[in-house]
Specification:
- The complex is a heterodimer.
- By secondary structure, chain A is an alpha/beta fold.
- Chain A is built from five helices and five strands.
- A five-stranded parallel β-sheet of chain A has the order 2-1-3-4-5, with helices on both faces.
- The model of chain A has no long low-confidence stretch (mean pLDDT 93).
- Chain B is an all-alpha fold.
- Chain B contains seven helices and no strands.
- Classes of the chains: A alpha/beta, B mainly alpha.
- Chains A and B meet through helix 1, helix 3, helix 4 and strand 5 of A and helix 4 and helix 7 of B.
Amino acid sequence: MKILIVDDFSTMRRIIKNLLRDLGFTNTDEADDGNTALPMLRSGKYDFLVTDWNMPGMSGFDLLKEVRADESLKTLPILMVTAEAKRDQIVAAAQAGVNGYVVKPFTAAVLKEKIEKIFERIQ
Amino acid sequence: MSDSKKNPQGLDQEVMEKLRVQANALAEQVNAGDYGQAMALINDLGEVRDQSLYREVGRLTRSLHEAIRNFQVDPRNAEQQEALSMMTDASDRLEYVVQMTGQAANRTMDLVENAMPRAHAMRDEAAALRDEWQRLRRREMQPAEFRELYGRIDTFFVTLTQDADTIYENLSEILLAQDYQDLTGQVIQKVTTLVKEVEDHLLNLVVMASHVDQLTGTVHDIESNDVSAEQGVGPQMNAEEREDVVAGQDDVDDLLSSLGF
C-alpha cells in the first residue's frame, strides 16, 4: 500500500505520516501541492491519496478533479483532510468524486475510521 | 457590487445651498427663454463643483500624507522607509510566529517519535516476560530456560528504568515546547492592534475619497473579490453560529450521508 500525502505544511504532513504509520501504512511519500503531486501520482503507482484543500499552486480540489479526469488515475481513492468547512465545498468535493472528507482539527480515531471505510468499500 | 451609495452629509452645506439656488435660477432662465444667461449659470455651477472638488482633493491628499505618516513610513528615504515601516515589521512578526509554531511542532514530534518506539518495546518485552513468567508458575520451565529468563528480567528492569526516564524527560520537554503560545500570542495581539489601526485610517481615506466621487459624480463598479471557495479559504471562524459551515466531523458525516455517501 503506497500512499501520497499532499499538504503545504510539513508539520501536518508529518502528523499524517505518523498516524498512517500507526495504522500500519509505512510506505508514504509527500508533496506540498497539486502541481508537485500530480506528476508523482502519474509515475509512482500510488494506491491512496491523502490531500489538503487550501494550498498555494494547485489546490487539493483541483488535484481531485485532475485525478478524476485522468484515465490512469481516475479510480485512485482520495481522502481529503482539510480545514475547509463550508457546506458548499464539501458538497462540491463529493460531487467531484472524493472518497472521504476529514475536517481539521481531527483525531487519530477519525482518520482511522475514514481510511478503513474507504478500503471496505473498495474491496 | 458597487459603493455608489450617496452620503447626504458628503457635500458641504454651503456647496449644496449654492447648487440649489443656482439650479432654481437656471430653471427660471430656461423657462423664460434667456439661454445666454442660462449658459452663464451653467458655467457658474461648474465652477462651484470644481472649487469643491479641489478642496476635497486637497483634503484627501492631506489625509493620505497623514495616513502614511501614521504607518511610520518616510517616503523621502527609501532605506528608512523599509526600516521604519510598521507593515514590514508586522510581516516579520508574523513570519516569526510561523517559525516559532513550526519549531515547536517539529520539536514536539521529534520527542514523540523518540518516545513511541520505547513505549512499544516496553510493552512487547513486558508481554513476553509475562508469558514466560506464567510458564514458570505452571512449572513448565526447564532450569536452563529459567536461567535465561532470570537474566532477561534483569536486563528488562534496567532498560525499563532508562526508557521510563527518557519518556518522562521527553514529556517534560514537550511541555516546555508549548511556551511558543505565550510568545506568539503576544506578537499576534500586537499585529492585530496594528491591523485595526490601519483599518481605521483606511476607512477615513475611503470617506474622504467618497466626497471626491460625489463631486465628480463617479460611480465605481467594484468587482466582488470573494475568495474562490475552489481555491480554498482556510479555517472558518464561529462555525457553530453559521449555517453555511460545518461545526465538526459529525456535521461532515451527516452532510455526506445525506448525499448518499
